[in-house]
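Help wanted!
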Amino acid sequence: MRVLAPWLFAVVAIAIVAVVLVPLFRLAPTRSAGPTGLAGQTAAVVALRDDRGAPVALDRYRGKVVLMNLWASWCPPCRAELPDLQRLWAEDAGRGLVVVGVDQGESAQRARSFASSLGVRFPIWIDADQAYGRAYAALGLPTTVIVDRRGIVANGFDGALTYVQMRAAVAPLLSRR
Amino acid sequence: MNAFAFAAAALAAAVLVEAFVPDRSAYHAGWYNVALAALLVFLALRAREVTRGAGGVYRTGILTIAFGAGVLGFAGIANGLLAPDPRTLAGVPGQQVALADLGGTIAFPALAGAETPVLLRPGRAPLPVEAQRYVGSAILRTVRRTVVRVEGYDANGAHLTITQPTGSAFLSPVLLMRTTQRIAGLELPFDSFALPAAHRIVNVVLFTAAQVAAMRGIAGPPEPALLFAVDDETDQPLPHSIRFAHSGEIVSDGGVRLRAQVLDYPAIEVIAAPSLPALAAGCALMLVGMAMLLRRNTKTPSRS
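Answered by r_m:
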């Protein structure tokens, strides 16, 4: 009596070889390091307080496009970028854009006075534990993450953006309902 | 038949021990894998011998056992010769660290909370790694490591951003203390961080409670302590900028105020093991083969 037909034996043997060997040669995930690799993931929600001490969280903006900018007052590129963020927010807030500046590791007083000195009016959150810096895999400051209306990360950027780049990043999301 | 049964059992035991008692260098040694291969060849020859002229359930049972043992042996040899060395995956709270072996990432928990790292894989449910998990061809084991959570303040008491330009996470106030520095004959865990707003780089050396207790002239309870050495932003040491502090104590050093807490935090040990699906398939085939032989043996007397 033949136990297994040769072709069936070959199929079973190949399947077993594959099961055993494939994990040993598995390639690293293709997700790139840093905030650019976040696209498509659900945006992290960390409970924080704003610069006035009120509790805030990202999920309260579900249904809007959120541009989160991680910054600190000692960071020169952050200083250069904040006025453009203010301009973007002023122009597109009515179309469903929310800009949030998330200060990394500084006191509320320092963050508030720094933002005021640059004429920033959009919400400033205080992330004393720098949790968003880790959740968004920041490689440096500034780091910008754009979250769509469903709470999914659409884009992540390492380094300062120009006004044109910011607008190009949010425009397609704002036009989607 | 006895030699066949012995070889099959020995092969199964030699491979299963890799799964149940992982992380032994012997499994990766040449002699161990040559022995597995020799058992495999012997088993195949014996299977051929004992089934010569036989048929029916007996032949099928023997070949099924041999095939199952072959699957186990192949999985064991693949693990022994091709699997990566054991390693420890450390991450800071909130960080996700890629685990290429399993095609996923390990998400490290917040400092306060459940404190269980979670394996995240595309298209699969998150898998908490509590004590030990056998996943695919790896065993994930949670181990505790000592980490240091640091805080920095300026002279006015304002909180400062902590950065780790050379650490595993740029914006983390938790130091993983992965390197060591030799001081006074002791290999001591060492790490560093920057306070960009104050233009300072702070080097941190960790002492265990026992090492602190052995030191002369150190006041306070025998608990872990830290040595801070503050440099300017060009890595030049500042004068009188070396301070010793107990865990949780605030010290002024180099124009800034520093506080560090020594904490236990999980890391993941990744130990290669024979492929779990292959082990399951091999064991199942052997059991099916044995069941066939037993069934035949119990039926034979009634027929005679």
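OP: Thanks! One thing I noticed: Chain A touches chain B through 39 residues (CB under 8 Å).
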